[in-house]
Amino acid sequence: MHYYYALLALELAKDRSAEAERARLATLFADSQPKRPSVVRRSLALGLAAVSRGSAAAVRRLDDCIADDLGRSLAPTE
After folding, report:
1. What does the longest C-alpha to C-alpha distance in the chain come to?
2. Are 63 and 71 in contact (CB under 8 A)?
3. What are the distances in angstroms from CA 47 to CA 39, 59, 65?
4. Which one in 29, 43, 74, 77 has a CA-CA gap of 20 to 30 Å to 10?
């Protein structure tokens, strides 16, 4: 029975050691990455955001026009 506990303790120690090694490697990898995005990535993100805002404004404008037309076409005629 004591032999089983000894093997269990060794297995737990091995698992914890492997987990600590993975955490250490993850920390090293995270530290080696640049702290801020590159100039190219940032420029692309800003350009995409500008296009997105522009298309949203165009859609809102079209939506207002279509809503006005739809309201006039559904109005009861006298």
Report:
1. 98
2. no
3. 12, 18, 27
4. 29
Q: Which residues contact 26 (CB under 8 A, 6 or more apart)?
A: none
pLDDT of residue 75: 60
Do the Cβ atoms of 45 and 37 come closer than 8 Å?
Answer: yes
Number of residues written out for the chain? 78
Residues 47 and 70 in one domain: yes
Q: How far apart are CA 39 and CA 48, in angstroms?
A: 14
**Number of domains into which the chain is organized:** 2
**Rounded to an integer, what distance in angstroms lies between the CA atom of residue 59 and that of residue 56?**
5
Same domain, 5 and 24: yes
What range defines the domain where residue 21 resides? 1-33
Q: For residue 36, give the 3-state DSSP assignment.
A: coil
Q: What is the pLDDT of residues 8-46, one digit of tens each?
A: 999 999 999 999 999 999 988 887 766 766 888 889 999
